Amino acid sequence: KMQKWLPVATVLATVLRPATAFTVQPAARLHVGGPSLALAASSHRKRLVTPRRTMLRMVAAADTAATKIVGPEWNNDDEYTGLDAIELKADLASVGRLIDELSVLSTKIDMDKLDSLDATVLVDMTRKSTEAAVMLMNVATFAGCESSVDGSNLQARSLQANIRAMSSKMTQATQSASLAIKLAPDAIIAQYLATCPEEAFNVEHQRKLKDFTLSLPEENLITALSVDGNSAWSQLYSSISSTMSCDVGGKKMGVAQAASLLASPESGERRSAWEGIQAAWTQNEEAAAAILNSISGWRLELNRRRAAAAGQPVHYLDTALHQNRMTKKSLEAMMTAVEEGKTVGQRALKLQARVLGKKQLHPSDLMAPPPVAEGAASLSVPFDQGVSLVAEAVSTVDASVGDFVKMMSDKQWVEGREGDKKAPGAYCTQFAKSRHPRVYLSAYSGSFQHVSTLAHELGHAFHSWVMRDMERAETRYPMNLAETASIFFETVVGDRLIQLAASPEEKLRYAWYDAESAGAFLLNIPTRFDFECRMHEAREAGETLSPTLLKQLMADAWQGRYGDSLECMDDMFWATKLHFHMTGIQFYNFPYTFGYLFALGVYAQQESKGADFHQSYVDLLRDTGRMSAEAVVQKHLGCSIEDPDFWRGSIRIIEQKMDQFEREIEAAGL
C-alpha cells in the first residue's frame, strides 16, 4: 500500500497526471514480502562500539516476552493537527489561487507558434506549479496517512477526492507548458534551462516522448476523464480492501490484520489466514476483475492513440520502462539472468520446506518465520528493540545512519498499530513542505519479518533524507532505483544478525530470510511480471478478463516460475495483490527485482571500498533523481546493466547465500 509523495521534478512534465501514458510516475515504496536486505549512509565513518552479546541478549529477551506486542503510533501534528486544520485549508486555498494564476499564464503559450515562445513563461509556470505541488502533495500525504489508519474515514476519503480534482485542474492548467517543454525548439529549451538548470535531466527525459504527444485538447481530456475514470478504479480497490472482512479460524477481522497472520509461526494459523483472505476476495472477484479490465483497457487505448500520433507502435512495457528510466535491453538482460537463476529461488524454497519438515511449501508459508526449537517461545521483538536492532546493524556502515533510524522512532514518524480498518501493507512517504519522512506498517507484531519490513521502509526514508537539501527537481527517483536503498538496508540488517549469532540455530534463523528474499525476488516478482504481460496481451487480443481467465493466467505464471517448489499455485493472487490494481505506476513488479539484484552488487563493494564506501553510497543515492538507471550504474559501479553478466553476478551472490543456508541447516541437524 502506498500513498507516496515524491519530490517535485518537472511539475510541468505532469507530476500530478497519473492517467497519462509516458509520464514519469512516483517511485513506489512497498515491501515485497521477503526480508533480508537494507540501507545505509550519512557522514562520518564511525562504528558503534557495541559488545557482541548486546544485541543477542536483546533478542533472547524478546523471545521470552509474554505480553502482546503493540506497534507504534505516528504523530503528524507537526504538519497538520487534523483534517480540519486551518493550515491545511490555507494550503488548499493557496493551491487554488496558484492554479488560477497558472491558467492565466498558460494562455501565453501558443502551441502553433512555439518557435517564438517566451521562455520566461515556462520559468514562471515551473516556479508556481512547484509551489502549488508542494502544498497539494503535503495535504495529500496527510490525507493518505489518515485514510491508511482508518479506511472508513469518510472525511479523509472526501479530502482525497478533492485533491484528485485539484490535481486534475492543475495538470490541465500546466498542460500547455508541459507539451511546450516536450515540443519546443532546442533554442527555446536552452533559454529555459539557463534559468532552471535543475530541470535539465527531467526535460531531456520528457522530450524523448515528443513523437507520442497528443494535442493539447486531447491531453487535457485524458487528464480530466482520469479523475473519475482510470484513477477511480484504484480507489475502488483500496476501498474494498480496507473495509473488507474475512473469517480466520472463526474470527472476523480486516484483511490487513489477516495478512499480518501470514507471518505467524503457526502453520495452521497461516493457512487459516490465507484461506480467509482468498475466500473474501473470491466473493469480490467480479469487482476485482472489472478493475483490471478497465485499467488495462485504458492503458491499451492510450497506447493506440499515441502510436497513431507517432506513426510507430507503442508496447505495453514502454510506459513502465520510461517511468523507471531504463531501456528495454536492460530489462531483457535482467530477465534473462532471472530466468537462468530461477532454480536458485526454487532451491531456496525447498530448503525452507526442509527446515519446516515439509515436502513442499504451501503459498501460505511464503512469509513464514523460521521455526524455533521445541518448547521455545517464538521469536518476537518489541518495537523499541526492533528499532535498536536496525539502528545497531546499519551503524556498522556509518554511525549517523543508526542515528537516523533512532530519530525516526524518537520523533514518532513510524506507524505500526493493529486495526481492522487499516490499509494492508507497508510504505514510506514524505511530507513535501518539511521533507520529513514517515513509515507506515499495517501491523507491527514483532516478527523478524516485520523487523525486516521496518528496515526496508526505513531504507526508503533514508534515501529521501539524504536528498533533502537538493533541488526538488533532482530528487525525483524511479521505482527501480528507489528499491535499491530499501533492499540495501535489509541486507545490512540480515547479514549483521548472522555475524552476531552465537549458535547454529541463531545463524539458521537469520539466514532463513536470505532464502525468503531469494524466493520473493527471483520467483514471486517475476511471476507477477509474467502475469501482467499475459494479462495485457490477452486484453489487447480482445479478450475479457473474467475471473476464470485471470485465475488461469495467474496459475500458469506461478507454475512457470515456482515449478515443483510449491504444493499448489495461488490462482487468486491477481485479486489479493494490490499492485496489479494501481493506476499511477505500471508493472509494479520488475523494479523490485532490479533493486534487489542491484543492491546486492552495491553491498558487495562495501568491503573493497572500506572507509570510502559510505560517502560513495550517499553519492549514488543522490544521483538517482538526475540520471537514468544505466548512467547511475555505469558511473558508480562501472558496469552495464544491458549486459546479462551484470545481473548474473548478483545471482551468484544469492547462490552463495543459499550454500551458507544449507550449511546452517546441516549444522542444526535438519
Keywords:
670 residues; 26 helices; two-stranded antiparallel sheet
Description:
The protein has 670 residues and is mainly α. It is 60% helix and 3% strand. The chain is built from 26 helices and five strands. A hairpin with a 2-residue loop joins β1 and β2 (251-254). It is globular and about 80 Å long. The protein starts with 51 loop residues before the first helix and ends with a helix.
For the biggest β-sheet, the strand order reads: 3-5-4
Given helix and strand content, the structural type is mainly alpha
Averaging pLDDT over every residue, what do you get? 87
Can you tell me the overall shape? globular
- Which percent range fits the helix content? 55-70%
Question: Radius of gyration, Cα only, in angstroms?
Answer: 24 Å
Taken as a percent bin, the fraction of beta residues is under 5%
- Main beta-sheet annotation: 3 strands, mixed
Describe the secondary structure blueprint for this structure.
Blueprint: H1 52-63, H2 86-106, H3 119-149, H4 154-183, H5 186-195, H6 200-206, H7 216-228, H8 230-243, E1 245-248, E2 251-254, H9 255-260, H10 267-283, H11 285-310, H12 318-323, H13 328-340, H14 342-356, H15 383-394, H16 399-410, E3 414-415, E4 426-431, E5 436-441, H17 448-465, H18 479-500, H19 504-540, H20 547-562, H21 573-576, H22 590-603, H23 606-609, H24 613-623, H25 629-637, H26 644-667
Parallel strand pairs: 3-5
Antiparallel strand pairs: 1-2, 4-5
Helix pairs in contact: 1-15, 2-3, 2-4, 3-4, 3-5, 4-7, 7-8, 8-11, 11-19, 13-26, 14-19, 14-26, 15-16, 15-17, 15-18, 17-18, 18-19, 18-22, 19-20, 19-22, 19-26, 22-26
